[in-house]
Amino acid sequence: MTLTKPRLSFAALAIAAVLSIGACATTGPMASDSYTTTTLLSAEAKQSLNARVAAFDRDMNRGNINAVIEYLPPKMIANLSEKVGADPEFIKAAAGAMLSGMTRNLKFSGRSDLSQALVGTAGNGMPYALVPGVANITAGKETMTTRGTNLALQDGGQWYLIGLSNEETLTDLRAAYPEFRGVPLPIRQR
């Protein structure tokens, strides 16, 4: 099978969903409100974000890779669906199957640290959170530990998470959510 640009984007999006690793880049005002003291999020928004991040961590630690796809922002799935010419539900199912195959012999453990999250607002005033975390990925007897950042954003009243792992992920995010075009977001440094 030849990997066209949409298929590569699909693979990058799927891998970003699992690895959720990052570091720092771009210009403009970075999220700076501490999650613990921010007034940018209501108590209800904080509670729902906390529940969503805890569920994500639980799914990752249980190896429930297919569930991780459900945390991806829907407009990113819709854009990819349009590029590939497939139904969004097919895209999610295919990404889940691909990730399950790629990670079959891997074990994941780790956690997100909301107490260290930074909160900011996107161009349209939408609040978002940059949630740091650590992941241990074990293959056989070897373990790799990575630190990174997930972007948490709300769409339709639901929190979604995307690992900020590379420039292509940021490009796809900003195409789907133009309000993030001027927002500096962390990405993985090589």
* Shape by Cα distribution: globular
SS element count, helices: 6
Helix content: 25-40%
Give the terminus-to-terminus CA distance.
28 Å
**Which percent range describes the beta-strand content?**
15-25%
Specify the structural class. alpha+beta
- Runs in which pLDDT lies below 50 for 5 or more consecutive residues are 18-28
Helix and strand string, N-terminal first? Answer: HEHHHHEEEEEH
- Integer average pLDDT: 83
Largest sheet: 6 strands, antiparallel
The total of beta strands comes to 6
Query: Measured on Cα atoms, how large is the radius of gyration?
Result: 16 Å
Brief overview, please?
This protein has 190 residues and is of the alpha+beta class.
Write the topology of this structure.
Elements: H1 5-19, E1 33-34, H2 43-61, H3 65-68, H4 74-84, H5 88-102, E2 106-112, E3 118-121, E4 127-139, E5 142-155, E6 158-163, H6 167-176
Antiparallel strand pairs: 1-3, 2-4, 3-4, 4-5, 5-6
Helix pairs in contact: 1-5, 4-5, 4-6
